[in-house]
Amino acid sequence: MARAPFELAGVKVMPGHRIQIDVPVARLYTHAPLHIPVEVVHGRQPGPILLVCGGIHGDEINSVEIVRRLLRSKQIQGLRGTLVAVPIVNVFGFMQHTRYLPDRRDLNRCFPGSESGSLGGRVAALFREQIVDHASHIIDLHTGAIHRTNLPQIRAQLSPGSETERMANAFGAPVILNAELREGSLRHYAQNRGIPVLTYEAGEALRFDEWAITPGVRGVLRVMRRLGMLTGEHRRRLPPAAELANGSSWARAPSMAFCGRRCASGRAWRRARCWARWPTPSGTPKRPSYPWPMVSLSA
Q1: End-to-end CA distance of the chain, in Å?
Q2: Which of 99, 116, 266, 285 is deepest in the core (most CB within 10 A)?
Q3: How does strand 294-296 pair with strand 268-270?
């Protein structure tokens, strides 16, 4: 029996086909239409419906590049199930090189949204209704903020033996952060609907960081293989087991100064060792900074 077509935003995708769908989101001041680009790969064989999305924050371009490379990968040929890839969700912020929407709202605090709400609420409602609600699994791609670099990490609400935990372990990021849900986020909405969801954080905003992009692409492919969406054997060497963290916090400078780091991002650093010094422009040394008993540092 032939597999049924996959329908998204009123467009039907037949089994074994791949199509780009432009989902109308708004009109600009010039009355020009604005769309969220979506690529759907609908496999001939049944399987999960995986949503991989980037650019919920418009300046997080590493996430856009991860989705682009995923779609170019030969490994997704012969896909089982359906891949819904959205490189840019916040098209408003992406065009302006900014994290936020024009109304200064954070789209990742607007879910589930409302068709009669603010601009952020309306975009969230559209993305939820047209795209998110179709998914059986979700990988949401992010980066750090401007001038802040995130060590590649998975954020998820873990419970032993859950599908989310299996996806997180399969991804292969150096760190898995067992993170609480934030109200209004895509992860909060999806988790409450029973959809397994991962958030991948890596790199810096407005920068292409190869050390963040490549692990992101490979991690998504590993998850797809774990879900049974990809055929063939995995030939690459598996990454080391991830470090599991149950919390995170900021280590802040004691005063305004230059930061002279003495350790690389991601290294475990014990309390007794100084990880940074804060010299003045003239070179006068400031007091050193020491982390908590054992931490993995992200610049």
Answers
A1: 53
A2: 99
A3: antiparallel
Cis ω before 112 (30° cut-off from 0): yes
Nearest partner of 238 among 247, 229, 251, 225, judged by Cα? 225
Report the distance separating Cα 66 and Cα 215, nearest Å: 9
Which tens digit of pLDDT belongs to each residue from 222-273? 999 999 999 876 666 778 888 898 888 777 766 777 777 777 777 776 666 6
Q: Smallest Cα–Cα separation from 139: which of 38, 60, 62, 221?
A: 221
Residue matched to tokens 């329908």: 7
* Structure confidence by residue, pLDDT tens digits, 182-219: 999 999 999 999 999 999 999 999 999 999 999 999 99
Cα distance between residue 128 and residue 242, in whole Å: 31
Question: How far apart are the C-alpha atoms of 97 and 58, rounded to whole Å?
Answer: 6
Among candidate residues 86, 88, 96, the one with its CA nearest the CA of residue 29: 96
DSSP secondary structure string for all residues of 32-87: -EEEEEEEEEE-SEEEEEEEEE--SSTT-HHHHHHHHHHHH-GGGTT-EEEEEEES
Domain(s) labelled CATH 3.40.630.10 in the chain stretch across 6-244
- pLDDT above 50: residue 70: yes
Residue with tokens 């997704």: 76
- Domain 6-244 adopts which CATH fold? Aminopeptidase (3.40.630)
State whether residue 140 is helix, strand or coil.
strand
CB 41 within 8 A of CB 191: no
Q: Locate 106 and state its tokens.
A: 């954070």
pTM of the model: 0.92
Query: Rounded to whole angstroms, how far apart are CA atoms 196 and 216?
Result: 18
Q: Find the DSSP H helices in 140-197.
A: 163-171, 186-192
Q: Where are the beta strands (DSSP E) in 169-237?
A: 175-178, 197-203
Q: Token pair of 12, please?
A: 């039907």
